[in-house]
Amino acid sequence: NKIEKMDSGHTEYYVQREIIDEQRLKERSQRMDPSQINLPISHRLKKSLSCSTPRLKRSIVGFLPVLSWLPRYSIWDYGMPDLISGISVGIMHLPQGMAYALLASLPPVFGLYTSLYPPLNCKRLAPDSDFLIYNGTNVTEEVDIISRDFYRVQVAAAATVLGGLIQVVLGLVQFGFVGTYLSEPLVRGYTTAASAHAVVAQLKYILGVSPKRFSGPLSIVYTLADLFMLLPQTHLPTLLASVVSIVVLITAKELNTALRQKLLVPIPVELCTIVVATVISFYTRLSKTYKISVVGEIPSGLQLPSIPNASVFSEVVLDAFAMAIVGYAISISLGKTFALKHGYKVDSNQELVALGLSNTFGGFFQCFSVCSSMSRSLIQESTGGKTQIAGVVSGVIVLVTVLKLGSLFQELPKAVLAAIVFVNLKGMFKQYYDIVTLWRSSKIDLLIWLVTYVSTVLFNLDMGLGASMGFALLTVIFRTQRPSYSLLGHLPGTELYLDMETHKEVREVPGITIFRSSATMYFANAELYLEALKKKVNILHLNLVTIKYIFSEAGQLKETNGDIHREVELGWRERENSTVFVIPETVRTSDVHHTWMYLKGTDPETTTLGSVSDLHDGDTTTLDSSSEDTLSRDLERVSLGSLGKWTWDIHSIILDFSTANFIDIVAIKTLRNIFHDFSEIGVDIYLAGCQALVVEQLERGGFFSDVITEGRVFATVHDAVLYCLKHRGAEILHSYENGRATHLVCTSIYYHCINN
Q1: Which residues cross the membrane (predicted)?
Q2: How many CA atoms lie within 13 A of 81 on its CB side?
Q3: Domain check: are 236 and 373 in the same one?
Q4: Which of 408, 496, 641, 683 could share a disulfide with 678, CB 3.0–4.6 Å?
């Protein structure tokens, strides 16, 4: 190996080695047989079922991580940060918990229950009720308020338990990878649509009106239409309370943001707002004097656990599934964000089980579904919280409120809680800017965002999730079915091969076509791959069977033409009217008659082969009665450039498989047909850049044979190019321009046959 410092400051590497095909690569690298790597199923099953003390300990600690960090907990290092963090988060739990209960059409006290039980069961982040659970109820207006609220609680608890069980089961069967199918545009579009539902649900509290309840597809449209009809009945005192609360909250939150560097802990804006609003409401008797709707009675004490009503499972199963999947996606995304920032690893399956246990446990105490909260997780992080002890502290604050302080909030106006929800959705409103960002970066991702948003808004959360996931999978199929295909050229002075359409300095290797697809070839795009290959080598309008027919007929012509004194090389060109001519290039004199062939038509099923004879030098003839073109016959020069588009001069095609990560049986059959059909017209096919797994799958699929050997597969494209040049002989190599040949071969890889 030789390394030389260039004047420009760059280092140029000269590498001398042999050309490496797949067979030689196996020999040199001593690649192991798959049977040596993959253990038998019986052995793997025995290993997975075996149990030892260290393995049992790892399993228990993995399932209950508290057993790992609690014995090593340092009060001096973590005690004070966890205490401050827990108090800060607990204070935020109170107003937001009650507000989100209102969002879920439940009595506010159940928001406090939800802020108490599930966080004690979750293992790392501070989960809370920031996810819309279900779409109202089906009870009629005649049902009294107590019965209505009781039924709503039953539905919420059933959906929560069912969603939690779904999460636990999916986590136990290692289904955590499902989160990877929920792309960021899908999740953001979905949560933005959910925020639209949340805003519409709060408008009745902000305006002080009572619209009809709608469910099913287009329910949001019907609700908005009903609210529009009720605008003249807007309760002005309620609207005023809502507007004042929104202005105060937005102003205070902006001040919090501006002063966050100077504040030890953020100002509890929501808590201050509900305290002030409750005091004003109590002393001015807003509920009686101005008919403003208030929270009402908040019972003190804890709820006894109860078994959810299984009879409503069938009604909420779709909501529960949507809640389980999207809630997990939001939580795992947030978990990975903090893991990347603080340098720890997130186990997606463990997160799924933990979230499922939180929901299942909380559902027995009439809690509604939870997932991780960005706002409260950020507060816990910014205030120094390190462990789940902070969650215990926040739970104690909520517990004290539920036991002793809950009754103090009975005069809290619902409009204030609705304002809290509205303001906290500000981050969701900012996600509408994704449309601009995605328009600039990826139109397909933008389409996923828009389809998810529109389908979720119009068809509600459950059907919207299914529709958006289905559409996202369709885009994956579309991208693999419609990849970009390119012809590669050589970058002089390197062993790099780049797309000739996008790089000006790359040069085509004479006689060699290098074809690459941007996606893996498999059953869904194998036919498209073949069509793209034929198009790139300019034989799309003719199938290979027809081309072989031309060559066969031309070969018979060669045998019957007695004037041929040397080996005939066939050149053929396409005229403007799609007539293809097959011309025997013979040693000819001016007084000898010659016969030559032509092929008329572009449809392989109707194409016919004809011949014209008894032409002398300088003669002209019209080959197609429908064409005005005439052909000037010059046998010495065979000058057809004025009527032709291309000349078939390819002897080798290299298929760059560096982008393929697997190959199926359909693609293997397609490859086998490509090798066979092109060999019939004198073109050799080679593979380059195959990963070891792809080669293994080719072997198992019966691709290799006596005709198609491993010698047709090369480690790199450059190896394949050099082999093609060497295989065609030294006279072909030296027939190229000296500069091009030197740049192509000599500066990157030397082999001993080049100068032979």
Answers
A1: 155-177, 234-251, 263-283, 320-340, 352-375, 387-403, 453-478
A2: 16
A3: yes
A4: 683
Does residue 78 sit within a domain?
no
Residues, the chain: 756
Which residue range(s) make up the domain with 185? 86-473
How much is the pLDDT for 36?
60
Residue 203: inside a domain: yes
Q: Which amino acid is at 401?
A: T
Q: Name the CA radius of gyration of the chain, rounded.
A: 37
- 516 shares its domain with 556: no
> How many C-beta atoms surround the C-beta of residue 392 within 10 A?
14
* Range 681-686 average pLDDT: 87
Q: Is 584 inside any structural domain?
A: yes
**Same domain as 611, residue 529:** no
Last residue of a domain, one of 473, 501, 526: 473
Asked if 277 and 294 count as a contact pair (C-beta separation under 8 A), the reply is no
Mark residue 366 as left, alpha or beta (left: phi above 0; alpha: psi -120 to 50; beta: remaining). left
User: If pLDDT is split at 50, 70 and 90, which confidence band does 666 have?
Assistant: very high
Q: Is residue 415 part of a domain?
A: yes
Beta bridge partners of 515: 487, 655
And the tokens for 600?
């008329």
Confidence of residue 587 (pLDDT cuts 50, 70, 90): very low
Position 119 scores a pLDDT of 63
What whole-number percentage of the chain has pLDDT above 90? 23
> 405 falls in which pLDDT band (50, 70, 90)?
confident
Is residue 210 domain-shared with residue 316, that is, in the same domain?
yes
- Do residues 61 and 195 both lie within one domain? no
Number of alpha helices (DSSP H) and beta strands (DSSP E) in the chain: 28, 17
Q: Could you tell me if 661 and 713 lie in one domain?
A: yes
User: Over the range 405-424, which residues count as b (16 or more CB within 10 Å of their CB) and which as e?
Assistant: ebeebbbbbbbbbbbbbbbb
Is 10 strand, coil or helix?
Answer: coil
DSSP string, 248-292: HHHHHHHHHHHTTTT-SS---HHHHHHHHHHHHHHHHTHHHHS--
Q: What rounded mean pLDDT belongs to the chain?
A: 75
Q: Is 10's pLDDT higher than 60? A: no
**Residues 6+ away with beta carbon under 8 Å from 293:** 205, 208, 238, 287, 413, 414, 415
User: How many domains does the chain divide into?
Assistant: 4
Kindly state whether residues 355 and 322 are assigned to the same domain. yes
Rounded to whole angstroms, what are the CA distances from 460 to 12, 215, 466, 599?
Answer: 61, 8, 10, 61
Q: How far apart are CA 619 and CA 592, in angstroms?
A: 12
Q: For residue 487, what pLDDT is reported? A: 94
Parallel, antiparallel, or unpaired for β 749-750 and 11-16? parallel
* Token pair belonging to 33: 């047989």
